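User: Hi! I'm working on a homework problem where we have to compare a predicted structure to a textbook description. Could you give me the structure for the chain below?
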Amino acid sequence: MSGLRVRRRGSGAPTVLLLHGLGATSDVWEGVAASLAPLVCVAPDLPGHGGSPPLPGYTFAAVADAVAGLVDPSGTLVLGHSFGGVVGLHLANAPGVRAVVGLGIKVEWASDELARGAAMAARGPALFDTREEAVERHLRLSGLTGLVEPDDVDAGVVQEGGRWRAALDVRAFGVGDPEMTALVAGARVPVRLARGEHDRMVSTAHLRELVPDPVDLPGLGHNAHVEAPSAVAALLGPFR
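Assistant: Happy to help. Predicted structure tokens:
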């Protein structure tokens, strides 16, 4: 997909493709990318997020197709958070992918949760009179309130018709059930799943149903990559 906002750093192989969660932007990977130096780190704003254009419609597969061109066929490790972790698993069998690490992926979805996502997708964006209000909305949608300073938010908000909104295309909330069991079973490369110890979106028991040795990151929550970048970077250790 052309027009993606992509952040790149480093010069050493293999390439690490960093995929953020729903509502966030590639900026959340800054600490992880620094911890992975000198590896090449490529972090896009996913379609409909930050500075990247929207898609006509959202499925996990469609988002994966949009970023597939960022996979280095000579060797890529994929690290994705939550929504981005599911996207990463859709790339597991792409030429050049050596392993996929998924952080904080919600495995079980109740019908009412899926219905709420569909309702949010149909609602349209909330517009605000000030940038500050839109920043607050962006941080709330991405689960980054209290973890990222409002003054540090860049691509997460946009101005539209003289008003402000979070950059997220809310239609992305309608992607539906990720069907993780089939995704993990179908991956032909190693898959490592992890969660923060205090992540209320997914349990270790849920992850253990998919992989034999999920990783619990002590003291961390859903956005562990922002809270403790070096601990999340270390998840790639066995594959570097």
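For your comparison, note the following. Strands lie at 6-9, 12-19, 39-44, 76-81, 97-103, 157-160, 163-166, 191-196, 215-217. The chain has two domains: 6-109+175-239, 112-170. Good luck with the assignment!
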